[in-house]
Amino acid sequence: MEELDRQKIGGFWREVGVASDQSLVLTAPKWVEGLFLTLSGSNLTVKVAYNSSGSCEIEKIVGSEIDSTGKFAFPGHREIHVLDTDYEGYAILRVSLMWRGRNFRVLKYFTRSLEDKDQLGFWKFREVTADTGLYLAARPGRCAELLKEELI
């Protein structure tokens, strides 16, 4: 991305796909269903809805902008970089984190819709992740829907 339009990226996003070269990332018992992004100044607040063995969990984290291309740093050695988005249908993010002394990079595909996967965005995600190896499609759950309706 050349420059992120910070006002347009905010709001609800449902996770539709994940790509990683680490199988551990794809088999975790707790996974992201949706995000709600809020921007204020150079800060990005991410409200994450997780599905943890069928129960919904919420985490709220605040990060700060590293640069205008869509990179944000968060506590705990975590970073989110918006690689591509059309703001209305899809977003492709790279999430980097340190866990148990190892660096993990995960590519994630999000849509605004609870049902649709946005075909154009999905093909862009496949292009970006062609060399990654392991994929995971969205798993059904109700946490993203509750997050979108602001019930959690």
TrEMBL record:
Signal peptide: none annotated. GO terms for molecular function: small molecule binding. Residues 11-131 form the Lipocalin/cytosolic fatty-acid binding domain. It comes from the Eukaryota. InterPro entries: Calycin, Lipocalin, Lipocalin_CS, Lipocln_cytosolic_FA-bd_dom. Transmembrane segments: none annotated. CDD domains: lipocalin_5_8-like (cd19421). PROSITE patterns: LIPOCALIN (PS00213). Belongs to the calycin superfamily. Lipocalin family. This is LCN8 isoform 2. It comes from Pan troglodytes (Chimpanzee).
